[in-house]
Amino acid sequence: MIKKIVLASFIFIMLLLGAIGWLSFRHEINMERAVFWVDHSGDVVTTLKALELDVREAEVALQTYLFTRDTRWRDEFRLQAFDEMNSHLARLQEMIGDNPNQPEGFGRVETLTRKRVSIFQELQASIDDDPGNNNDRRSELMRSGANETEQMVSVINTLVERENRAIENRLAQRKVDGRRLKEMVLAVEGFALAFVGGALILVYRAVRTRDEAESQLKLSLNEKEMLLKEVHHRVKNNLQVVSSLLCVQSGKLKDKEALAVFAECRDRIHSMARMHELVCARGQFASVEFDRHLRDIAEILLRSHMPADCDIVLVARCDRVDLDLDQAITLGLIANELILNALKHGFAGRSKGTLTVELHAGPPCEMVVRDDGIGLPSGFDPEKGIGLGLELALGLTRQLKGELKTQAEAARGTSITVRFPTKSKTTPATPTSL
Amino acid sequence: MKPKRILIVEDEAMTVAALKREVASFGYEIAGTASTTFEALHEVEALQPDLILMDITIAGAIDGVTAAVAIRGNFHAPVVFLTAHADKKTMERAAGAGAFGYVLKPYTGAELKAAIETALHKYEAEVTSRS
Asked: b/e map of A310-341 (b: 16 or more CB within 10 Å)?
């Protein structure tokens, strides 16, 4: 949820930044275009004014030539009337000749200018032909020329006004565009801020909800752990009551065999109780470190059931095997029976011996209880005519869906292997001895 | 030599019966029994036992660990805890109370005997070194 919100926010912010960039880019392009057109209009206005000035100067030069007959003024007139005016007309043609908004104005200026130049030419020819001042035709040409000049100036002024208005319009449009861009950027920023704020609130709420759920989960887990510990504690207490009951009952007995049966029963109870103890101590209720349990019960049984006048060494070679509680209790009871059998019967008449317990992770998981004692009688069949211990071990092995194998040689000892299917975690075996 | 006297503090009758039998079989004398911590403190003062076998989870205003702290501060007898609690926290509390031993239920006779003997030996050594 949080990842999705952050990703969506990131994509959204990237899109907004892209939009702002695009708007800014467009504004910049428009600005450059506006500056170009403002410059262009300025040039047009300047050229139009220069054309007007050319006409005025040509007039002045021609009139001065008329009165002074100084040919320098005639040259000046020619310069203004032909070179300068043609040059400015060409410049205007270049600038506004193909402008769809100006062709009419430019055409009129050009026509009027050409007409004015032709009147100038006719007047100059009249002056050159007749140097006298009283010439009616010349007076007529001067009036007509002045009239043409006024018309031309009027058209030029109209064009200048139009260009000035265009400049003003473009500047005004740029201002509007600039303001609009600023407003759009502000709107986008505001929207982005609102979105990011909303996203932050969503993230905060999602985090808080997750934290609350985690706290609830932890609380629930703690409660369950406490409950399980309490259950294991009560089981152990109840097993203690059963053990105590057997202890008290056995106090009434005198028969050694009967006492031994009671003691074995208590050993079995202790084997089961030790498993619950391991679970509580480890704090993990799903599985038990069975290798540790096997070492413990082997040591305890050896201490409490060491045969008189016999020194027995315990060797344990155990892989790390984690079993679920059901399998662990069953295998623990099997181990209890096999170790007890070995201690009770395996070393009869011996002064020393070695008891070996092995646990191999497999699969299949394998537990071996081996002694180097007197071995089993010849023709021994574990399925027939056996004691309670081995009978229990066989039954419990079947419960594990496993198999029990006996290997024995007279005077060389007995080895009993229990194999059963399980999932186990392994670490290399480390032999220990007592 | 006079046998050591042991006070049993346990609220489970069947366990008390078994403990009495087993402790007696080890050669000790049962000084008395108590089923609450209040009763236990009273009996310790009245009977002056040589060792107290104390259940941790026991009826009374205070639990066995707190009672052990009170006994250690006011009387001269080692306490050996007897409990089904095997968790680290309980063991640390017990160690902090100055217990001389810790036997987990259900116990074996060998474990109980070893714990009692070790506690008596440690206590005697402590008294000797103090004097």
From this structure: bebebebbbbbbbbebebbbbbbbbbbbbbbb
Interchain pair A281, B108: CB under 8 A: no
Closest residue in B to A306 (Cα–Cα): B110
Enter the tokens of residue A129: 């032909």
What average pLDDT score do residues B51-79 get?
Answer: 87
β-sheet with A365-371: strand ranges across: A403-409, A413-420, A365-371, A352-360, A311-318, A430-433
Residues of A in contact with B18 (CB under 8 A): 243-245, 247-248
Angle at CA of residue A412, ends A411 and A413, nearest 5°: 100
pLDDT the model gives residue A99: 63
Q: Chain B contact for A240, CB < 8 A?
A: yes
Please state whether the peptide bond connecting residue A363 to the residue before it is cis, i.e. omega within 30 degrees of 0. Answer: yes
Which domains occur in chain A, in start order? 2-204 (1.20.120.1730), 287-433 (3.30.565.10)
| Whole-angstrom distance, CA of residue A314 vs CA of residue A371 | 9
Min Cα–Cα distance to chain B from A258, Å: 17
Q: For residue B121, give the CATH number of its domain.
A: 3.40.50.2300
Residue B8, pLDDT above cutoff 90: yes
pLDDT score of B43: 92
Q: Which residue has the higher pLDDT, B64 or A96?
A: B64
Cβ contact, residue pair A244, B104, below 8 Å: no
- Please provide the distance, in angstroms rounded to a whole number, between the alpha carbons at the two ends of chain B: 22
| Calpha distance A289→A324 (Å, rounded) | 9
pLDDT given for residue A434 in this prediction = 43
How far is residue A432's CA from residue B4's CA, in Å, rounded to a whole number? 37
Residue in this structure with the two tokens 């059998």, named with its chain if needed: A341
How many CA atoms lie less than 13 Å away from B31 in the CB half-sphere?
23
Residues of chain A falling short of pLDDT 50:
424-426, 428, 433-434
Sign of CA dihedral A89, A93, A99, A105: positive
Six-digit token string for A112: 């009027």
Shortest Cα distance from B45 to chain A (angstroms)?
28
Count CB neighbours of A242 within 10 A. Answer: 16
Q: What is the pLDDT of residues A138-155, one digit of tens each?
A: 788 888 888 888 888 888
What ipTM is given for this predicted complex?
0.75
DSSP class of residue A327? H
Pair of tokens at residue A301? 């049984």
Domain extent at residue B84: 5-130
Position A131 scores a pLDDT of 66
Alpha-carbon span A64 to A44, nearest angstrom: 30
Among candidate residues A387, A431, A386, A380, the one with its CA nearest the CA of residue A406: A380
Calpha distance A140→A223 (Å, rounded)? 123
Chain B closest CA to A232's CA: distance in Å? 9
In which band, very low, low, confident or very high, does the pLDDT at B42 lie, cut at 50, 70 and 90? very high
| Residue A236 with chain B: CB contacts under 8 Å | 84, 104-106
Q: What is the CA radius of gyration of chain A?
A: 59
